[in-house]
Amino acid sequence: MRETIFKYIDTHQEEMLSFWKTIVGHESGSFDKEDLDKLRDFLVATFTDMGGTVRTCAYHPAGDLIVADFNSHIDTAPIIFSGHYDTVFKHGTLAERPFTIKEDGRAYGPGAYDMKAGVTMATFITKALLEAGYDKHPIRIVLAGDEEVGHTFSNGSEDFANAVKGAVAAFNFESGYVDNGFVTGRKGGGRATFTIKGIGAHAGNEPEKGRSAILEMAHKTIAIQECTNFEEGITYNVGIAKGGTVAISVPEEATMVVDIRMKMLAQLEQVEKDLNKVLNTTYVDGTTTTMTYALTMPPMETTEGVKEMFRLLEESAKELNFGDIFMKYVGGGADSAIEVQQGVPTICAVGIAGGKNHTVDEFAVVETMFTRAKLVANTVLKLA
């Protein structure tokens, strides 16, 4: 069976590249609902033509969740191939940077690396398994349309969790790494928005009557940044700070948005304690502050199931002379965290190798699409 799968991948490389180019050509920025729906329709049609049973969870204004089931007649727990089809790049970026494969073997284009190469791999590994008659487990492809924004405007987290619950294993096709590290742990993240009200006044005529919201925000910025604990893996970053209207007025309103990262869900209690301490401390008399806070992505914790999945992946790598691989821990969040939270053993970042994601220099190493597809497929065959 392995030889049949590998032969399929080898003989369909040009088709994989064509498919990849096509879906990169479907722009799908997280905030561009019309574009997202067009790509959703293309993927739904593709999975249906492959013999899948496809359903979607519809959202507005977010991109929909796609769930495609193959080999549904098999009475065992499914294997999950997961990822997302939205990108961080807004409509119009494609005209500036179309999909291109250069002489150095690297591919460029908005979302080519993160993570439309991964969508391509999940699709064609499924095709290869079906072609070879794989019948040990059903295969379920789960693709989010709003992962890049943390499902902030949808029920995507809950629906994703329901789609993966009870699976025997999951491979998340997030963008991979050129150092051959495969992700077995990720930080979780949240957002806190502080809105500060001060008292406006003319900065020349009566500044003493003002109470500066920006000055209060400055104190709070320093205070929350100082709560960072690198040793424990809890970090705070004030990424947005704005306020005031004109330079000649004492500002009466300011807003700061804080990015929060943590290694374990158990650290939420400390995070909330830190945030509330800053919220409830007034540095400039006469100002008031309100806060909204939400966990946007839980941490992907390195469970025993995750470690066992890595052991199988490592075994496959040795069999295929893939090269040495290692367990990698990263700070960015992904839906693999939801999979682990549901008790599903998961390996993340099994997608194409590359780098500089979310930037204009984002690139993918083309050849690794095929070598990693074989590595994943071979690991699938090892699952009990």
Describe the structure.
With 384 residues, the chain is of the alpha/beta class. Helices cover 35% and strands 26% of the residues. The protein is built from eleven helices and 19 strands. The strands form five sheets. The protein has a six-stranded mixed beta sheet, with helices on both faces. A five-stranded mixed beta sheet has the order 4-5-19-18-8. Strand 1 (53-57) and strand 2 form a beta hairpin.
Uncertain segments of ≥5 residues (pLDDT<50)?
Answer: none
Strand order of the largest sheet: 1-2-6-3-7-17
Give the overall shape: elongated
| Structural class by helix and strand composition | alpha/beta
What is the rounded distance between the termini? Answer: 16 Å
**Helix content bin:** 25-40%
**Roughly what fraction of the amino acids lie in strands?**
25-35%
Radius of gyration: 23 Å
SSE succession: HHHEEEHEEHEHEEEEEHEEEHEHEHEEEH
Annotation field: number of helices: 11
Q: How is the quaternary structure best described?
A: single chain
Q: How confident overall, as mean pLDDT?
A: 97
| Strands, count | 19
Biggest beta sheet attributes: 6 strands, mixed
